[in-house]
Design a protein that fits this description.
Blueprint: E1 2-10, H1 13-44, H2 50-54, H3 56-63, H4 72-90, E2 107-111, E3 116-118, E4 123-126, E5 130-135, H5 143-149, E6 152-155, E7 158-162, E8 170-177, E9 183-190, E10 206-211, E11 215-219, E12 224-226, H6 230-233, H7 235-247, H8 253-287, E13 290-294, H9 298-301, H10 308-314, H11 316-330, E14 333-337, E15 363-365, E16 372-374, H12 375-389
Parallel strand pairs: 10-13, 13-14
Antiparallel strand pairs: 1-5, 1-9, 2-8, 3-4, 3-7, 4-5, 6-7, 8-9, 10-11, 11-12, 15-16
Length: 390
Amino acid sequence: MKMGNVYRIYPDDEQKTLIEKHIGCVRFIYNRFLHIKKVFYDKFRINISLSQLDKYLPMFKEIYPWLKEVNSQSLQEARKNLHDAYTRFFKGQNGFPQRKTKKDTNKSFQIPQRYRLNLTTSQVFLPGIGWMKIKMHRDLFSPEFFENLIETTEVNGEVIVEKDLNGEFLRTATVRRTPTGKYFISILTEDREEYPEMQEYSEDTTVGVDLGIKDFAILSTGEKIENPTFLKKSLKRLKTLQRRVSRKQKGSSNRRKAVKQLAKLHEKISNQRHDFQHKESNTLLSDNQAVGIETLNIKGMKKNHKLAQAISDSAWGSFVSKLEYKAKRLGKTVIRIGMWEPSTKTCNVCGYHNKDITLAVREWECPACGTFHDRDINAAINIKKFALAT
């Protein structure tokens, strides 16, 4: 089972400069390779393979000597990332690969080999950058796994874990800088464990979940999870900080300070949202063996400009992703029903289809059986029924 472990790192000023060089060089190579692939295909209808792209890297290093100042394996990973982007595009998972710019919020590079961890002093060694402090708030492996399978070395009484000696269990490391100037490293690990078998579920151990705006989630049990609306609550402050940025002269130190203040607030909102979703997804999966949920066309729903901001604030896609990967690790089931299932307009008691339900109708009485419905709870119950039928 693969697991991504994210830790904060604390480089000094010189190391920050080296990290920025790595980020810039990786972005440069990615854009160059993207340009080569596009030119060959547009003019000659030739698809350049990974091995053919490798031949261009030494040439670029001769033309641009500053590429030699960074870890060469990080540059090679940029080629692999471009290949993965093309693969996802042809599978219909993502759009066509785009150029990376300095304004992108995702500033990162990968290190596939030669990194080391000093568990005694809580430091990490990155090739081409050096040793720096790392906050190991969570163990990479369980104590039993570490003792039996991880190979360590001792230097002056300090325990060192080298990637090259444990390549089966330690995979690629990714260094990332956030817009607020914080640095993190994500270490991918493999613990040899298989995903657990899917547990059996029944009507009593399944819950239907209807995602909404007024309430974040409505359960088939009748429980409603309040929507915290983190973005809405911080909107006034966001507008103030954005005005300050727009009024500052471009390139000035005051503008950089204002941009950082704005980025800190955006980061806070994001952290609040992730924390909330992690807690709620953990609760749902710990209380139930299966979760039924509706497939939503979020991109299409955002075209309604009256609801776009509220939908983005709810971040339904992020929540469903958390549910699915956690369920896989726990041996539980997330059942998606089709987006065209009439969960809202169908009476969960007699099955009557009410065509007159609009978005403004929050409660309605079934003309056939006389049952009085809360719109969202009725939808959650129907989602559960459709999921179990599926």
